Amino acid sequence: MAGLETIGTLVDVYSTAKDGKGILQNIAKWFKTPANILVVGSSGVGKTQFIQVLRNDSATTNPLRTTKPEKHTTEIEKIKLVLTDTPGHEHYETILQGTIAANVTPNMIKDNIFWEHPLAGIINVVAYGYPEEPNINAKHLLLQGSFDEQLQKVNIGFLERNRNMELEHLNYWLPTIAENSSKVPWIINLINKADIWWDDENDVRQYYDTIFSEPFKHLRKDIEIMNIYFCNKVQPYYNKQRSSMFGEQEKLHLQENFKNKLVSLLSK
Ligand SMILES: Nc1nc2c(ncn2[C@@H]2O[C@H](COP(=O)(O)OP(=O)(O)OP(=O)(O)O)[C@@H](O)[C@H]2O)c(=O)[nH]1
Ligand SMILES: [Mg+2]
């Protein structure tokens, strides 16, 4: 059966190539070891859902909180990917640190998982502080005053605190990467939940270009670090669509843009 599958895939590789060079490139990609990508970021930023989107799984259900590393395989333009989802909640800090260490030291057995491939890169998901669900205080506040007034109040301390958690989360993995920086070709800061912050794009860009970029300055200069906007799904926030300028089309556009960037990084 495995033989038939192999022939099937090779036929597929052949038929998607438009010219001779394309055929060779596709075959080369097919034989290459999978690109091992680590997906990190604080709890609720959308890591698990992001992996679902890349695997073309349904992004309509809300994933459960991740409590241990989980590997998922997929393919983008014939490039095989192994995406390792990690737990973002601080409760699982030790597990996350073990996963990071195992990935920068491949061929080591850790937690019964054999980490066989060197790291292709790291995707650090952030969401400008937007949480996985409104907290109790926020819900309570929304019972009084107009929606916008209350949302404003909620946003001040609440989003700032969540943004600080995104920054603190860097402490769990960035020092290990700094010590092993020759093993990490690139880091993408994937700025997710664009459907929520789209109207504040200038603030978002400035924040990730300045305050959030500080801790990355200690890394080797030739690690490529990119900030890329993303959206897993367009979803009302506190029962309200956040931006009239952002819909399904914009979401698909950001997803396409990200995939193109990833393919170009992995084809180097
Ligand atoms: N509005 C909006 N919500 C999103 C988006 N991506 C994810 N979410 C929601 O955010 C919540 C958390 O998503 P997860 O993928 O579970 O988050 P996680 O980073 O894996 O969290 P942990 O497993 O705790 O580390 C879910 O309810 C998602 O539906 C997005 O692009 N826009
Ligand atoms: Mg998760």
Mind explaining what this structure looks like?
Strand 4 and strand 5 form a beta hairpin. The chain is globular, with a radius of gyration of 20 Å. The chain has 268 residues and is an alpha/beta fold. Helix 1 packs antiparallel against helix 2 (20-31). It folds into 2 domains: 1-31; 34-266, Rossmann fold (3-Layer(aba) Sandwich). The strands form 2 sheets. It has a 6-stranded mixed beta sheet, with helices on both faces. The chain has a two-stranded antiparallel sheet with strand order 4-5. The protein contains 9 helices and 8 strands. Residues 47-48, 63, 66, 85 line the site of magnesium ion.
Tell me the helix content: 40-55%
Cα-atom Rg, whole angstroms?
20 Å
| Distinct ligand kinds | guanosine-5'-triphosphate, magnesium ion
- Basic shape: globular
The secondary structure category is alpha/beta
CATH class term of the largest domain = Alpha Beta
Termini separation comes to 33 Å
- CATH A-level architecture of the largest domain: 3-Layer(aba) Sandwich
Major β-sheet, in short? 6 strands, mixed
Query: Would you list the SSEs in sequence order as H and E?
Result: HHEHEEHEEEHHEHHEH
CATH fourth-tier homologous superfamily of the largest domain: P-loop containing nucleotide triphosphate hydrolases
> What strand order characterises the main sheet?
2-3-1-6-7-8
CATH domain fold name of the largest domain = Rossmann fold
What is the count of distinct domains? 2
Strand content: 15-25%
Number of strands: 8
The helix count comes to 9
Mean pLDDT: 83
* Regions with little confidence, pLDDT below 50 for 5+ residues: none
